[in-house]
Amino acid sequence: MTSNKILGIDLGTTNSAFAVMEGGDPEIIVNSEGDRTTPSVVAFTDDERLVGKPAKNQAIQNPEKTIASIKRHMGEEDYTVEIEGEDYTPEEISAMILQKIKHDAEEYLGDDIEKAVITVPAYFSDRQRQATKDAGEIAGFDVERIINEPTAASMAYGLEDDADQTVLVYDLGGGTFDVSILDLGGGVYEVVATNGDNDLGGDDWDHAIIDWLAEQFEAEHGVDLREDRQALQRLKDAAEEAKIELSSRKETEINLPFITAGDDGPIHLEESMTRAKFESLTSDLIERTVEPTEQALEDAGYEKGDIDEVLLVGGSTRMPQVAEKVEELIGEEPQKNVNPDEAVALGAAIQGGVLGGEVDDVVLLDVTPLSLGIEVKGGLFERLIEKNTTIPTEESKVFTTAADNQTSVQVRVFQGERELAEKNELLGEFHLTGIPPAPAGTPQIEVGFSIDENGIVNVSAEDKGTGTSEEITIEGGAGLSDEEIDRLQEEAEEHAEEDQQRRERIEARNSAEAAIQRAETLLEENEEVDDEIRESVEAAVEDLEETIDDEDAEADDIEAATETLSKELQEIGKQVYQDAGAGAAGGAAGAGAAGAGAAGGPGAAGGAGMGGGMGGGPNPGAGGPDAGDDEYVDADFEDVEDESDDDGDDS
To answer: Which of 72, 111, 153, 471 could cross-link 175 (Cys pair, CB 3.0–4.6 Å)?
Structure first.
């Protein structure tokens, strides 16, 4: 059955969380491992694809095929990860994480989930937002809304306190930093200003520790551990653990035995790090949050004394230096009643409740983080929509040609705050043709921008003389079309079935191997077993071993052969029981037979690990996983007043 609930998803750089409205309140959903957050990690092994904690747990043994922090590359057009000769885009890797989230949510709720609200950093560009939406669709979601993470966090906070107030949300995640200022009151959440740094997050604090450890070790032993993939992965894990420990302790010990080997044998890494040392190593990182925070205040027209509450969001805000810096900047002690790991997902669930009709009297007024415009004559950036404009919104402006007899123009769309277009991010471009030849400055070309609730941009251009028009919805990431999304979704679904089959086969094999081991033990311990029974058991063992070794054998085949062996083992139990009578020995033999049946039964859990830390536990998540021959004049537009419409220039 398909649920009408809308899942709220915080798709994080290092960890993700998901929630849903239950009984009028947002509730975090635990994943299949029983945790409230899911590592945003994907790994490939010889047998299956792992997502979440299983992927993170085997990263040291399998660093080359383990992918983490893929969110930092969302929207990068040419970025791919190569695994075993196959290239994966950030959207595809993110879709694998989202598929696990979808699967775990459905298992938890007992219903199919089709709709989702997914959060993104407030400072994500249109391209990055579209890439996130694409990832959701590849994973099988209808993405109802893309909302900003700080805004979502404020909704989780505001649901508990609906008083009129101005709130600053300081969001330091694993890979991004955002700061947003909102006016809350009467169920209205109005974003006044936002700013941030998409290349600053908790991972950078980890890297500072990694570099320090590596430099200390190299100075002492002459070996750079960062050049060894496996040693580097151990450093990463140790750095993250040290960072977490130093959030609550003044000092921590970092011990990595057998980290490498020299001429005289194994070398161990042993270091102590104090919180003071950690903070001195990362002081430049915390300072990078100051300028965006001050800029957001300036853009909002507020002084720090105008801020009523400060919310800290993102696991990285647990570091004491963060709270100290924020209090120094704002003069207000941050709230401590908001869980930094869960607030964003809870807020996304609330927005899902609003869209689904479960939550009334809540209005979200978000903003676009960066200005949008086009390139005009001289390579200048002409803004049509200014940053921090409330969305959805639309604006238009009239331009003209810069050359005589110009019959076409190229519209190049940019996003950013630089005055030269090329210094901003190029979102897309298209051509408007069929303009009648005329002297420069005569044609009137109206360019219109619209931004929807998800922050997705649509741009149009119309020759007002002929009515000829063109438009484009800016594509994100690799510029995925609907057909490409459908294809990737089909591939993801195909891989999901394939991964499920692999998992079932591994579980069946684990059960089979346990049954074989039990059979060998029973035969050794009970030499008096009749030759006929012994031969039957040995034949069943041989048949099961052949079935396991048969690459074409499916899980059902292995389970059937395991069941046959299980029944033969029961015959041993019967004989031992009959020979020994119904006394204690018989009871023990019966228990042994029952144990053999349990070990060999097709429903037995696959407890035995199989290389690289992979076991037969619950499925960790499925996944994948021109413009003709016309000669165009680049967009040398000139801004003009619209003579036929006084409102033509309304930017």
So the answer is: 72
